[in-house]
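tool_call predict_complex ligand=glutamic acid
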Amino acid sequence: MPDSRYIGRFAPTPSGYLHFGSLVAALASYLDARAVGGRWLVRMEDLDPPREVPGAQAAILDTLERYGFEWDGPVARQSTRNDAYAAVVEQWLRSGLAYACTCSRKQLEGSNGIYPGTCRDARHSPENAAIRIRVPELEYAFVDRVQGEFRQHLGREVGDFIIRRRDGLYAYQLAVVLDDAWQGITDIVRGADLLDSTPRQLYLQELLGVAQPRYLHVPLIIQPDGHKLGKSYRSPPLSAEQAAPLLVRALRALGQQPVAELSNARPADVLAWGTAHWDAARIPRVATLEEASL
Ligand code: GLU
Ligand code: ZN
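tool_result ok
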């Protein structure tokens, strides 16, 4: 059923090049949008200049083009959105929902990544401090289209989390929620490594009074040696010559059943086939590269 109200997005971070795992996420978000006649946007999550690899933005967009992806409208860049992020942080600081934290890494050792609330009522100046948002002692839950129900108790499992870093850079959790709302994103399709960020994002959506999108977290791709395929260690960049066979392989990782001849087709034809045959109900919760291979 065509749903022209659907707005999806692919939101790469230019801290590296596209790898097979990011291709799977890009492909799933693209096909899920196009299969219902929806829009598909690309947003460059260039929030963190020190971690940006020079040339990565251009390389990512070039790879997407060579793989046949066509996005709607201009590419949005988070680096142009600092005023919007700052306004929200200011507002939450003023209302007391957010506060400055001066804890050093060393001071936070041993708390298992769950902030113990040390600076909650210390009234530190926001200059030269990280800014954290208070979380409620509540569980946030949602039903993912692939991963099923996911719940997390923000107080016990996360703690007050950072929305602006000490170096002044805005946190992913804040920027992603503001930008998804600003761009009117109805459906978030992304890698399962972000499943456990989602409850924090639901909480921020609630604070902002914005609509909650639908979520579909595509399987993590597990290498035959059991390692997760990701940016944490060097995954090979995607080669342009291999576009069609790698798209076919990505379709298989998503549980789709592409016909073998597609590997010799043009990338745009693979995407057209994928759009016409897209069945999100077939997506597995976890995929290994072996299963996914040609
Ligand atoms: N920029 C994030 C990444 O590349 C994805 C953010 C998202 O899809 O919400 O991992
Ligand atoms: Zn602190």
